[in-house]
Amino acid sequence: MSARSGPGATTPHSSRGAAFGDFDNDGDLDVLVMNMNEPPSLLRNDLPQQNGWLQVRLQGTRSDRMGLGATVTVTAGGRKQAQALLSQGSYYSVDDPRLHFGLGAADKADRIEVRWPSGQVDTLENVAGRRVVTIREGDALVAGSTSVLDLDGRAVDPLAIEGRASVLVFVRTDCPIANRYAPEIRRLQERFAARGAAFWLVYADAAEPVEAIRAHLRAFDLPARALRDSGHVLVRRAGARVTPEAAVFVPGAGGARLAYRGRIDDRYVDFDRMRAAPTTHDLEDALEAVLAGRAGPRETTTAVGCFLADVE
């Protein structure tokens, strides 16, 4: 042990345990050594480093809340690393629950796969490095992003707009009002998809199984791509409260900008009252406007439908 290690490593102590973790959140691992009858020693790893890194924090839902027992596999730069999150460590010590992965010269992880004790498998792709990534069981969400899962468990960000607009239609499998709008949703997608508007059906009820959603799509012949927003990432971003409710996002200087949120049309006056035919086609009007490069007639309207559960 050379003098370059510092007094924490060269000074004799009677020690009984050690905990490993990124104590100063700078992307490398430090060590806290528990000494007998004296304060602990913190061995900070402060050597200059240019390589990439990634830390993964787990949040279990069906499995242990901390994610104990889960295995995380990170693929980056042609290399694959795997770690299991365990509770044991040194004597009377517990390591940082965030799993640390070195990325070498890579600046991102090509793929992160989490296998939970429940059997759930979550996958994220193209995750930027030099950050802490929080993954919630069943959602595969990166904190601060608008990525959610499709029905195959792949992470998708519908607000990374590649066309001219992204249309989110919030639905539920058991909402009669939302189901009544299936033909109108089909009509609008057929009309505007070729003009650069991407349509997404967003299922925001965490209790709805994937197979129930697939059956719902078949039963009502819904053509749009389906997403599961059980963590309400898109619900909060759009400000949605009920189903059906639509949100239109367009590209902006700082990312996706909300151009319209509200009802599809004014057919429903109240939950138990509806017109024979709508007099205003709000979503259609909003799309005509944004695709023409102008502001719509209304930025928000009040949607009538089934309330979304647990909306903050």
Structure characterization notes:
The chain is elongated, with a radius of gyration of 25 Å. It is α+β, with helices and mostly antiparallel strands and 312 residues long. It has two domains: 12-144, Sandwich (Immunoglobulin-like); 165-307, 3-Layer(aba) Sandwich (Glutaredoxin), CATH 3.40.30.10. The N and C termini lie far apart (55 Å). Strands 12-11-15-14-13-17-18 form a seven-stranded mixed sheet. It contains six helices and 21 strands. It has helices at 7-10, 176-180, 182-192, 210-219, 233-238, 282-291, and strands spanning 15-21, 30-35, 41-43, 52-59, 71-76, 79-84, 99-104, 108-115, 121-128, 131-136, 148-150, 155-156, 165-171, 197-203, 225-228, 242-243, 245-252, 255-262, 268-270, 273-274, 306-307. The longest helix has 11 residues, at 182-192. A hairpin with an 8-residue loop joins strand 1 and strand 2.
Q: What is the element layout, followed by pairings?
A:
Blueprint: H1 7-10, E1 15-21, E2 30-35, E3 41-43, E4 52-59, E5 71-76, E6 79-84, E7 99-104, E8 108-115, E9 121-128, E10 131-136, E11 148-150, E12 155-156, E13 165-171, H2 176-180, H3 182-192, E14 197-203, H4 210-219, E15 225-228, H5 233-238, E16 242-243, E17 245-252, E18 255-262, E19 268-270, E20 273-274, H6 282-291, E21 306-307
Parallel strand pairs: 4-10, 13-14, 14-15
Antiparallel strand pairs: 1-2, 2-3, 4-7, 5-6, 5-8, 8-9, 11-12, 11-15, 13-17, 16-21, 17-18, 19-20
Sum this structure up briefly.
This protein has 312 residues and is α+β, with helices and mostly antiparallel strands.
